[in-house]
Amino acid sequence: xxxxxxxxxxxxxxxxxxIALVALVAGVVGVLYARRALFPxxxxxxxxxxxxxxxxxxxQALPGALTVNYNxxxxxxxxxxxxxxxxxxxxxxxxxxxxxxxxIKFDLGRPVVLLDSPSTSAIEVxxxxxxxxxxxxxxxxxxxxxxxxxxxxxxxxxxxxxxxxVINESPEPSSxxxxxxxxxxxxxxxxxxxVGAVLSSVLExxxx
Length: 208
Description:
Elements: H1 2-8, H2 10-38, E1 44-53, H3 57-61, E2 68-70, E3 73-75, E4 78-87, E5 104-107, E6 112-116, E7 123-126, E8 129-132, E9 142-150, E10 156-158, E11 165-168, E12 177-180, H4 185-206
């Protein structure tokens, strides 16, 4: 009898709320995954970093060791770095796909000396960072930057692209760390808002 009373009362309503919320969240997640499967992102930026040590350890240990001098400054343990960006999707990556106009940033973790870059204002080198964008990249277009770092670079990537994949094609993909990615944030916020609205409506009907 107590069980029947519970099912007829607020306990039953609470159980209904829980089931409804679980179903809502599962439905939203299912829609997101289905959208990704049926309508994959057609924009992609691939990057590749190749490095080589300019002076081998044996050369540095020789009497009267060899040094590398750039603009009057001796470089410590210099590494030559070639950083290439390429538009590998079927559609162009336009300026509006850089969220709030923020560039993609490659932090090499070492002081950087710029050797050569394409004639574009989209490339900026500051300290240990190489920044690119926002700039239109049609499919197949690539940009290559040549650098020297003092010490072996430790790459991390910061990006805020909208509906654009970022692909690491470096020989050592584990060396690059994606430190910012927000493409799923709108979906998450939308799900939380929907759950909150349903919960508020049901609780209001319970305690009215």
